[in-house]
Each structure stands twice: as C-alpha cells, then as structure tokens.
Specification:
By secondary structure, the protein is an alpha/beta fold. The protein has one domain. Helices cover 24% and strands 26% of the residues. The mean pLDDT is 88.
Amino acid sequence: MWPDECTLKPSASSGKSYLVFAIYYRKPKDDMAFQRAARTWCDEMLAEFPSAKIRIRLARAHSVKDFLIEWAKIHAIAGAGKTEILAGNLLTHADKFGSTPGLEFGRDGGDPDSTLDDVDIAKLPRLPWAKLGLLVLSGCGTGLPMRGSNESMARRFAQTQRVNTVGQRGFASFSRWWSQHGETSASTEKMYLWAYRGKKNLQELPLPHTTIPTGGRIPGEVVTVHV
C-alpha cells in the first residue's frame, strides 16, 4: 500500500520495466510474519501500478551479513537490466534507543554485530531509484530521532540513497488491516507491518496521536529529497 502521507508518487510508464523489492527479517523457527507482510506489500505495489512492467524481488535476511548480500544483489540486478527501482521496503526490527541505533537482525555464527548502523547505511551502494520512488522502513521508531541525534533512520537512508523515505513514528506491529490495527494469527496470510495507535505507543513515546483513533494507523515520517 502506498502511504497517503507520501503525496509524491511516480507515474510509472507502461513501456518501461521497474523493480520493486522487499527485504524481510527471518529467524530460525519463525512464524513467517515478516515474510507474509513483505509479500502483502509487494502484491499491493503491483496493484498500485497495474499498467507498469514490474519485477518483484522478495529477499530474507537473518543477519546483517545476509542483508548486505541481498542489498548488493538488488543493486546488481537493477544495474544489469538498467532497471529503475520503483519502491523498496525493509521489514525488520529496529532500535532507536540503543547505544548503536539502527536496523536489528540476528547474529550469524561468530559475527557479534547484529545492527545495521549509521556506518553501514552510509556504505550501502546507492540503488537506481525511479524519480519519486519510495523506500519504506517498517521497523519500530525508524521515523523518530535516534539516540544522541536529531535525525531518524528514515532521514539517514533518504540522505545516502537520495530517495524519498518513510519511517515509523512509533512501535510497529503486525495487523490484518492497513488503516486500522487488527490482531493476526499464524493463519493470517494478508498482513501489514506499521505503527498503530495503542497503549505502548501512547505511554512510551511522545507522539502526536491525539487526533488518531485507538488502533488507527500512525502516519509515518516522510523525508523528501530533491533530485
């Protein structure tokens, strides 16, 4: 689903090929919630641009190493086909409060690093984004200032990738509906990962939720770049 708050939207040409990707976190013995949310998002991106030729890249990452490998593959795939990226989504855990804020993954073997931090983000190859393309960060607090900084993870990605980026202004959770939170189960196939107004967000984060009904979707922080 293209967020309403992201008012700038590409006009995908019917004669041009595009890439849409989602990288999702997966751990051993997972309930596949991140994967189901990633697949739902990709399906709805196809519906958003019905006349465009879109290739979907759905990739899983357990560790930071996995993520870096998948990002490099997306860069290579888009470059080899001279394909612009219409939209991407990073469906992962995230921590803005830690001593090293960033996207959170599991540890891989002897690698002690489980955080994709500022340094890692800055080193990511810049992808060939379409004009007015969009990067979505679905992890908790990715649209709020990180500890020790007045900038969010969404802003850091927007600056380094030169792409419009939206991040979460609260703790994200899985929902069976897009605009209103609905509990999910292991049998829920269509699901979303976003921040919704609820007890945890109201008590633990100073967010402007007063006009949002209980369970309502919290609009993300949108960082717009001028290319």
